[in-house]
């Protein structure tokens, strides 16, 4: 593994010179240099130009583009161009094109139309990768390789015969015998017992519901098939150019998409975790949009194991793929980019650098828009580039998170099956609600996989972790006995890795830890809420989406009960003392204000011996975001005001590295950003 070790914050993004007359390239690169761009990703969708025919190759245009960038000291992330095969290839090899779940073979004319299990695609793509690697291995501009692009964004599933064969091989490797598969899938249900692996097919459209574990294993296989394409490309690159880092761009946290790849499994395959993130929604206020950014950035940092990560794509302004594509108002780009950097990114890159004038993404924003360099968008990008350059001293610093939130793609996929008790919310909605509340309560949250080492965290949240093993319950109980605080929500611990429900009552794997027992789920329809009240009758929160028929053990404290409805009087919030720690159970999804109050209450007890966070009240009551990055004895406090009211920060002696100003107290004007260097305590 060759680790990415930058000496400056990477600032740049996608440049597609092939979309422009060559006479315009030099002026474009000059504009990028003016904006302090120091890195460009090149060649993402260039296969048809690099290989215009089966036995034709043309690298001259790419040679020229890379030379222009190098003249301006702009580093290159060179993509392998395998994201979309040329039309001649797809016509010559129609069997390589995607077949959807209804049996329709996708036609030529869009991007990423290739089957992850296609042998002929794999062979052709690796030939291209080797050609690129051999040509550019010693190029002075080359800084990093980038395999493919957004693997699985449009071709996460293919139901062709190649995929079916590969799926059967994957199942043999997982289960070894057909008897074990039948047991894991509960295949006796609906007379689905298989006599051999050859009888198993991908879960395409059928008469009614597919077996949930069949679908879950298919999702696992599809993620692994995409990963295999990345790894195959990476191995060619490492063979030819072993000293150059390799990555690919993940897609973590955009909108309500759960995603089709298990990036916890993928993380070890890259030399630096890279992510693309786009905010979703026109009606959202900027404060709500920054919550989307925080979710994605914290999730990406967790996948990276806490290490600095690479923001490969975010939008300078509007995108091209939402129903109404929101344009960033003046000043928002600065705050958006700084938010990702605050939360652990050591790179801030865009799609795209120069706005296309044709094709499906011609209305996707760029730092050089259609209006050219005499534009607000370009002037803001130039100012941002100046400020990002001043963050070089913070390179390699890391975010210190006090809270772990356990999330898992496999668990989310299982919750998506249409036979669940409710499909009225998205699988990560519980985790997002918890993350929003905890962030507003002043916590810095790492999203971690349930198998990760959690020993450094004093507060662990388990939000809707539907699948898990019994060992996790034992580990969390051991942590609580040593003083940790554990919060478990509804829909956690219900089933094992095969989606087999644990008997004896809910929440399954966590019953002993929590001292509660659920007899039945009672999901709520959209728009319906139920009040949870304290023993004194005070309202604590409004429960949404979910209730349970629940009883608490004698030693478990009931902190709230339902005030009305069929389950009036039953527990709505419990707490059990476990050694020197505590374990809470939350059998619903609280309203935002109620969840914030609950998060603040639990956090006040999570670190009883330490001083309260001086920023907690400010973050909870305003639209200010505060995140700390640390290295050695130095702390960088990123303070971003997403609101329209000036605020005063708590006393903090240090230097704002964006302005050079030193002070012991700070005003943070509406819309402003400060990065204050101080001594870490």
Estimate percent helicity: 25-40%
Q: Choose one word for the global shape.
A: globular
Tell me the CATH superfamily of the largest domain. Answer: Glycosidases
Oligomer: single chain
CATH class of the largest domain: Alpha Beta
Task: Kindly give the count of domains.
Answer: 3
What's the average pLDDT? Answer: 96
| Unreliable stretches covering 5 or more consecutive residues | none
CATH topology of the largest domain: TIM Barrel
Computed Rg? 26 Å
Give the beta-strand count. Answer: 29
| Cα separation of the termini | 34 Å
Main-sheet strand order equals 12-11-13-14-21-20-19-16-17-22
- Provide the structure class: alpha/beta
Residue fraction in strands = 15-25%
Number of helices: 18
Largest sheet: 10 strands, mixed
User: Mind telling me which CATH architecture of the largest domain this is?
Assistant: Alpha-Beta Barrel
Domain Beta-galactosidase C-terminal: 623-677
Family: Belongs to the glycosyl hydrolase 42 family.
Keywords: Glycosidase, Hydrolase, Metal-binding, Zinc
Domain Beta-galactosidase trimerisation: 401-603
What does this entry look like structurally?
With 681 residues, this protein is of the alpha/beta class. Helices cover 30% and strands 20% of the residues. Strands 12-11-13-14-21-20-19-16-17-22 form a 10-stranded mixed sheet. A 9-stranded parallel sheet has the order 5-4-3-2-1-9-8-7-6. Residues 401-603 form the Beta-galactosidase trimerisation domain. One of its GO terms (molecular function) is beta-galactosidase activity.
């Amino acid at each position: 593994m060759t680790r990415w070790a930058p000496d400056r914050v990477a600032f740049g993004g996608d440049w597609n010179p092939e979309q422009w007359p060559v006479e315009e390239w030099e002026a474009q690169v000059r504009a990028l240099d003016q904006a302090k761009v120091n890195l460009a990703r090149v060649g993402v969708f260039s296969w048809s130009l690099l290989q215009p025919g089966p036995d034709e190759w043309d690298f001259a245009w790419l040679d020229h583009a890379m030379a222009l960038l190098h003249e301006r000291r702009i580093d290159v992330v060179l993509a392998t161009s395998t994201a979309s095969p040329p039309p001649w290839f797809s016509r010559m090899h129609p069997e390589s094109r995607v077949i959807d779940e209804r049996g329709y073979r996708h036609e030529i004319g869009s991007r990423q139309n290739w089957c992850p299990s296609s042998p002929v695609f794999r062979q052709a793509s690796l030939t291209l990768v080797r050609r690129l690697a051999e040509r550019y291995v010693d190029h002075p501009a080359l800084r990093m390789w980038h395999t493919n692009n957004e693997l699985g964004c449009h071709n996460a599933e293919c139901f062709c015969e190649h995929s079916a064969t590969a799926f059967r091989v994957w199942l043999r490797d997982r289960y070894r015998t057909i008897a074990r598969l039948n047991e894991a899938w509960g295949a006796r249900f609906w007379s689905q017992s298989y006599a051999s692996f050859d009888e198993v097919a991908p879960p395409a459209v059928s008469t009614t519901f597919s077996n949930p574990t069949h679908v879950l294993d298919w999702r696992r296989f599809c993620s692994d098939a995409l990963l295999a394409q990345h790894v195959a490309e990476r191995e060619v690159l490492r063979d030819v150019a072993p000293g150059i880092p390799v990555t690919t761009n993940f897609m973590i946290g955009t909108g309500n998409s759960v995603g089709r790849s298990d990036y916890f499994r993928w993380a070890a395959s890259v030399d630096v975790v890279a992510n693309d993130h786009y905010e979703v929604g026109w009606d959202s206020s900027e404060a709500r949009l920054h919550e989307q950014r925080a979710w994605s950035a914290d999730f990406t940092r967790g996948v990276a194991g806490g290490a600095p990560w690479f923001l490969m794509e975010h939008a300078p302004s509007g995108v091209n793929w939402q129903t109404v594509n929101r344009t960033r108002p003046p000043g928002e780009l600065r705050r958006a980019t700084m938010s990702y950097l605050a939360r652990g990114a050591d790179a801030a890159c865009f799609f795209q650098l120069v706005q296309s004038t044709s094709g499906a993404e011609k209305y996707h924003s760029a730092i050089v828009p259609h209006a050219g360099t005499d534009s607000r968008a370009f002037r803001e990008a130039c100012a941002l580039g100046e400020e990002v350059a001043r963050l070089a001293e913070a390179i390699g610093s890391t975010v210190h998170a006090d809270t772990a939130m356990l999330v898992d793609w496999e668990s989310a996929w299982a919750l998506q099956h249409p036979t669940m008790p409710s499909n009225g919310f998205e699988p990560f909605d519980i985790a997002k609600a918890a993350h929003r509340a905890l962030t507003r309560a002043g916590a810095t949250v790492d999203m971690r996989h349930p198998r990760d080492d959690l020993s450094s965290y004093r507060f662990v949240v388990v939000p809707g972790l539907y699948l898990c093993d019994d060992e996790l319950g034992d580990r969390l109980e051991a942590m609580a006995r040593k003083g940790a605080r554990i919060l478990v929500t509804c829909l956690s611990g219900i089933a094992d890795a095969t989606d087999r429900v644990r008997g004896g009552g809910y929440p399954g794997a966590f019953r002993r830890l929590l001292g509660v027992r659920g007899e039945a789920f009672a999901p709520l329809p959209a728009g319906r809420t139920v009040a949870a009240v304290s023993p004194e009758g005070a309202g604590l929160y409004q429960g949404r989406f979910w209730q349970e028929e629940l009883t608490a053990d004698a030693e478990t404290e009931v902190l709230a009960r339902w005030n009305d409805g069929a389950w009036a009087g039953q527990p709505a919030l419990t707490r059990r003392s476990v050694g020197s720690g505590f374990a809470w159970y939350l059998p619903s999804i609280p309203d935002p204000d109620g969840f914030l109050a609950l998060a603040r209450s639990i956090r006040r007890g999570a670190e009883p011996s330490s001083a309260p966070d001086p920023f907690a009240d400010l973050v909870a009551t305003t639209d200010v975001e505060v995140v700390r990055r640390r290295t050695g004895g130095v702390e960088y406090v990123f303070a971003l005001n997403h609101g329209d009211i000036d605020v005063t920060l708590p006393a903090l002696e240090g230097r704002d590295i964006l302005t050079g100003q030193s002070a012991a107290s700070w005003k943070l004007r509406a819309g402003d950003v400060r990065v204050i260097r101080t001594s870490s305590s």
